Amino acid sequence: MRMVDLIEKKRDGEALSKAEIQFIINSYVLGDIPDYQMSAWAMAIYFRGMSLKETAELTLAMAQSGEQLDLSTLGGRFVDKHSTGGVGDKTTLLLGPMVAACGVPVAKMSGRGLGHTGGTIDKLSAVPGFRVELSQEEFVAQVKKIGLSVIAQTGNLVPADKLLYALRDVTATVSSIPLIASSVMSKKIAAGAQGIVLDVKYGSGAFMKTVEEARMLAKTMVSIGNTLGRQTIAVLSNMNQPLGRAVGNSLEILEVADALQGKGPEDLMEVSIELGAWMLVAGDAVPNVGAGKVCLRQSIKSGTAWNKFLSFLTEQGGDAQAVVERRLQVAPWNLPILAQETGYVQLFDAHKIGVLAMALGAGRVTKTSPIDLGTGVILTRKAGEWVEAGEPILQLYGSNKEMLEEGIKLAQNLVTVGSDAPELPPLIEEVIQ
């Protein structure tokens, strides 16, 4: 086979066979197919799509491109969760401690940021000393000990996705349903999950812009998961404005600390509780979603989720006390963006806030770009809240004057204020099983 022929085949809208898909994935991992050809193939998929059968074959080929994790020694039912990416989305860092505190172990591999969206591993890297990479033996041992571990995707687990994940970010091929579905599900399958809960986001800050696109992606992933014998549940959630108030790695860790101590933003808590309840249902820990929500809220109220989070940080080498004392690296330069008039804040554009945070240094422009962990944005007001003229709406954090000046340009006219309170859409659109 020749890669150029397979690019041409997909470019012309033809279906690829199982053997052809396996050839592409295996050859790319071995280095026999260069990035420029893989980019062309990804772009062909972006425009031409893939059938459900092709997407399932791509998922399996990626899952089998490296080692597969055996979590059978953990006992019980292992459930994983994945978000399709959003601005200010730090739900994994809340869900892990809460769900583990309710008796379901969480052994999770997470990714780094893609474009204007943040990555869980980047956020955890903001904790001094935290080890995002563990051996499989260390990973499993930690879950056995405290019920929780979150690590970066290792080189031996789904290496095809690790390579393609970074490539998509810089070739404008992120928002492709077959590529997203295969990326997400291959990692869950390789990680040994028996139940999978998916947070499929839609709106300006998500890769799926409409409910219809999100629903299509959700149904694709649920179909793949159920076909492969994994109970799969998808929750459609709104990402038209950032989740929570903090956007940026250190800033989001501090917000997680607040949330686990009962001081979290309402929207962040609502989405986290919904997802966590479904994880408990899929893990057979509770009889229904309502009971799951009760357990999760109690884990916050009692402090068990907060203590679990601190244990998790410590076990992976992180300085938990630095989080407790709020001593994380935060950019030294900060500047408020003030309201020009009095009224209700209208709906924020989550995508533009994500781009703003990226310009300040909180995200990647290329797959090798460094991230400034201390930079980002705080939304001092959110949509529907009242603000007086001259009060801050946003607080920008940058490491130098040039960054802040660029941020100020992007922040101009980013937020509008009106005399009437906006009608806000529901955070949770629907659940697909």
Automatic annotation (TrEMBL):
Pfam families xrefs: Glycos_trans_3N, Glycos_transf_3, PYNP_C
Instruction: Name the chemical reaction catalysed here.
Output: thymidine + phosphate = 2-deoxy-alpha-D-ribose 1-phosphate + thymine; 2'-deoxyuridine + phosphate = 2-deoxy-alpha-D-ribose 1-phosphate + uracil; uridine + phosphate = alpha-D-ribose 1-phosphate + uracil
- Give the enzyme's main class according to its UniProt record, as a single word: transferase
Show where the Pyrimidine nucleoside phosphorylase C-terminal domain sits: 344-418
Question: What's a single GO MF annotation on this record?
Answer: 1,4-alpha-oligoglucan phosphorylase activity
**Per the UniProt record, which EC number(s) apply here?**
2.4.2.2
Oligomeric and partner information: Homodimer.
Q: Which family does the entry's similarity section mention?
A: Belongs to the thymidine/pyrimidine-nucleoside phosphorylase family.
| Descriptive protein name | Pyrimidine-nucleoside phosphorylase
